[in-house]
Amino acid sequence: MNDKSVVIEKVILSEVPKLVSASKKGQELDELRPYIQIFRGSKAIFNHLSKEKEPKVYALEDKNIEFEIGLEATDEVLIRCRNFESNSDRSSIFRILFTPCLTFNDEIKLFKRDIDFSSNVQVSDNFYIKLVVKIQDESKKNI
What we know:
Layout: E1 6-13, E2 18-19, E3 31-32, E4 34-40, E5 43-47, E6 58-59, E7 65-73, E8 77-84, E9 90-98, E10 107-111, E11 116-117, E12 121-122, E13 128-135
Antiparallel strand pairs: 1-7, 1-13, 2-12, 3-6, 4-5, 4-8, 8-9, 9-11, 10-13
């Protein structure tokens, strides 16, 4: 088990991705309602989507997308971003694998080549995802 603990504070997308809807016969969506899910192994440990509140709407012209997370991670996690089209239609945007033990800075930038995008997603060559994290001080933890 890893001895480094990291709090994933934010996930920031540098731009709003273009998404082609599978449910709308290949139509490019002019707005997204993205949400984040985080998994440890096959178990969901965080879900930005809730029954009480639908995800925020982003237009393609919006500057960026920012998700507040606040989740402590000690082991490798999968971060997945999906788009909420309706209660029955959701589509994947991207997924990334995050390994806390390899974290040495409080900001990690993942560029387009580092991200596993769905085939129906388009982003510019300058696209990146920034993970804002807080490395926990292990010397202050009780064992």
